[in-house]
Amino acid sequence: MYLISFKGVICGMLSKDYKDLAFPLLREYLIHLRVIKSKSEKTIEEYFIDIRTFFRFLKIHRDLVSSELPFDEIPIDDIGTDLIKSVSLADAYEFMTYLVDERNNNSSTRLRKTSSLRGFFNFLTLKKHILDENPLKELETPQQKKSKPKFLTLEQSVQLLEAVDGKHRERDYCIITLFLNCGLRLSELVGLNVTDINPDNFIRVLGKGNKERIIYLNEACVSAINDYLRVRPAEGLEDRNALFISAHKKRMSTSMVQKLVYKYIEKIGLSAQGYSCHKLRHTAATLMYQHGNVDVLVLQDILGHANLGTTQIYTHLNTKQKEDAAKANPLSKIKKKNV
Fold first, then answer.
1. What pTM does this model have?
2. Which of 90, 131, 212, 226 has the most Cβ atoms closer than 10 angstroms to its Cβ?
3. Residue 93 bears catalytic tag
């Protein structure tokens, strides 16, 4: 099934790097991720890079290439089943050590690489039956330091909206409004089409894994969208469906939107504090939870989180709310009677 796909339409789903630089079994795995698992192109690219890095390391570790060959030039298109079958758990831990000592990878990056490798070898074991057992199934996940998400306060959010000006102010205001009110991911915002906007005041958003969800628009969003649509270019567009159009009449890219957000963040004096488009998503979630008393399950659906645990980080942000909850308990004033 997969071999036929390489020569057909599905092959076009993978970038030139994947098709030309990956060995056949890796190409099959990437197609499996795209077609069966519905992973995004960005996720597939990350998996490819992670697995490529591992096999480049393995070639050096096994003295299969000259030590003088630059790491980024080590080919992996010649990887065969013999090398794959020889991979051990010890190799994986040597790789993790290399990532720390030589590449300065943090725990988050190593966590992703661990997931990439386990997934690939699981595919070889359970789907391709090349391995009798996944040699990396016991590979431990790096411990991650849990940090609270960074977000703008309500006052800072208002300042950010008020800072919008210039030739494209309607477009820019609409973008920031959707970030702060809907909690969109950057990729979701740039992927919006005009046809995703429903007259009944909701938008269809295509999230991670090509999962579609509905987000209802409040008055601020409806007003911002209508103001922008009145001035949105209509002629000479490269992509007529794209909602947000650049000055060159193309769909705005992620980098364009990032620069736009950074510009206004800098304008209100917060550029040194590391705010970004993703921080605006955190801001939306935090404001909804802290000021709107939105149920965490509803918040999970709005944000498009696959796991409730990801959403629950927002339930630990406000100490005052936890104090108020404790005081609200009807037993909070019941004390032991003196005998």
1. 0.59
2. 131
3. no
